[in-house]
UniProtKB/TrEMBL annotation:
<dbReference type="GO" id="GO:0016491">
    <property type="term" value="F:oxidoreductase activity"/>
</dbReference>
<protein>
    <submittedName>
        <fullName>RDH11 dehydrogenase</fullName>
    </submittedName>
</protein>
<comment type="similarity">
    <text>Belongs to the short-chain dehydrogenases/reductases (SDR) family.</text>
</comment>
<dbReference type="InterPro" id="IPR036291">
    <property type="entry name" value="NAD(P)-bd_dom_sf"/>
</dbReference>
<dbReference type="Pfam" id="PF00106">
    <property type="entry name" value="adh_short"/>
</dbReference>
<dbReference type="InterPro" id="IPR002347">
    <property type="entry name" value="SDR_fam"/>
</dbReference>
<keyword id="KW-0560">Oxidoreductase</keyword>
Amino acid sequence: AGIGKCVAMDLARRNARTILACRSRERGQAAVEEIRAATGNPAVVLRLLDTASLASVRAFASAVLREESRLDVLVNNAGVTGLPFAITSEGLEQTFATNYLGPFLLTNLLLG
């Protein structure tokens, strides 16, 4: 939704292979189908990613590096605000993990 979906739509309109990294399979798949229909680009795919989970970040990065021959653009725009204080299963504060640690780790893993 929001900025991420707009960016994905623009990339797909430019005929780019576009990977949507989403926490929710249902919402992500709906966005994929909407973007494919609006752009005519069948190369829009969904991969699950929760940036609050470093294990999820590692799995996502590993799959991208294994499955994709190249990665030209990375847009980190996941973020949360206003959540009550919570600790992730990995012992990290949820907002900090989602907004900073996860995207930082993802970027560094994808750099190779």
